[in-house]
TrEMBL record:
InterPro entries: 4pyrrol_Mease, 4pyrrol_Methylase_sf, 4pyrrole_Mease_sub1, 4pyrrole_Mease_sub2, rRNA_ssu_MeTfrase_I, RsmI_HTH. It is an enzyme of class 2 (transferase). The gene is rsmI. Catalyzes the 2'-O-methylation of the ribose of cytidine 1402 (C1402) in 16S rRNA. This is Ribosomal RNA small subunit methyltransferase I. One of its GO terms (molecular function) is rRNA (cytosine-2'-O-)-methyltransferase activity.
């Protein structure tokens, strides 16, 4: 008999490709939860069958964008009875480009607990293999499908000083790359990550211009686009001095110089020399 699961909504991450990528905790939750819900019940049934987890008469409810309002009261009622509810996305981590957000919010507003069984995520998998900076990133989800809205969307985030991550449809990939090269900057480094963890996994790296030129026929499979941050514009001396004065109020000289060099893109040795001068003053 599986161990009892805490009465709560358990958000269960499921594999994005290889079934063996599921975690032991996820299997425990799927085996022991009183009620199961899934974005795609067929996908969850197949995963459970692969790992030898029987349904044993427990309810397995579909929960997706179209039926969410009708299903949420049923799941909240189960929680009110002190039962445990497990929700699994079609693939990856629930609530990341996934219909589970409204369910989690409703559960929180009703005063019940939300727990997670963390695991696979196409977002994090793409960041791991793209070879681009990961210290700061923005997950921007799916760009709008229509060209005008997509271009406005890209203009809003073009200057964000972080690596950008998008999910995209294979049939819209070429058009999206062309707009990204024009609006975000064709020299920005990028990676097209396709079918991550699956048999035909592929990662193509290059500048946005290069990738836009070489992407014509719609590729097959799931696509994650990772685009490196914009090049930092070197700050003028006055801006650097103002930043240094502020940093020196709370940091040692060396740490202040490091922080301001990262902020401004100016050489660290140059910034450190300026910091020493300000200290002497």
């Amino acid at each position: 008999m599986p161990d009892p699961i805490e009465p709560a909504l358990h958000l269960v991450s499921t594999p994005i490709g290889a079934a063996r990528d599921v975690t032991l905790k996820a299997l425990d939750v799927l085996a022991g939860a009183d009620v199961l819900a899934a974005e795609d019940t067929r996908t969850l049934r197949r995963l459970m069958e692969i790992h030898g987890i029987a349904l044993n008469g427990r309810p397995l409810l579909p929960y997706h964008d179209h039926n969410g309002p009708a299903q949420r009261p049923k799941l909240l009622a189960a929680l009110a009875e002190g039962k445990s509810v497990a929700y699994a996305s079609d693939a990856g981590t629930p609530l990341v480009a996934d219909p589970g957000l409204q369910l989690a919010r409703a559960v929180i507003e009703a005063g019940y607990e939300v727990r997670t069984a963390p695991g696979a995520s196409a977002l994090l998998a793409a960041l791991a293999v793209a070879g681009l900076p990961t210290d700061r990133f923005l997950f921007a989800g799916f760009p709008p499908p229509k060209a005008g809205a997509r271009r406005r969307f890209l203009e809003e985030i073009a200057a964000v000083p972080a690596t950008l991550v998008f999910y995209e449809s294979p049939r819209r990939l070429a058009a999206a790359l062309a707009d990204m090269a024009e609006i975000l900057g064709g020299t920005r480094d990028a990676a097209i990550c396709r079918e991550l963890t699956k048999r035909f996994e592929e990662v193509r790296r290059g500048t946005l211009t290069d990738l836009a030129r070489t992407t014509e026929d719609p590729p097959r499979g799931e696509i994650v686009l990772v685009i490196g941050p914009p090049e930092a514009k070197a700050a003028d001396d006055k801006t650097v001095e103002d930043l240094l004065r502020s940093a020196l109020e709370t940091m040692r000289t060396r740490d202040a110089a490091d922080a301001v060099a990262r902020q401004t893109g100016r050489p660290r040795k140059e910034i450190y020399k300026m910091a020493l001068g300000l200290r002497d003053d």
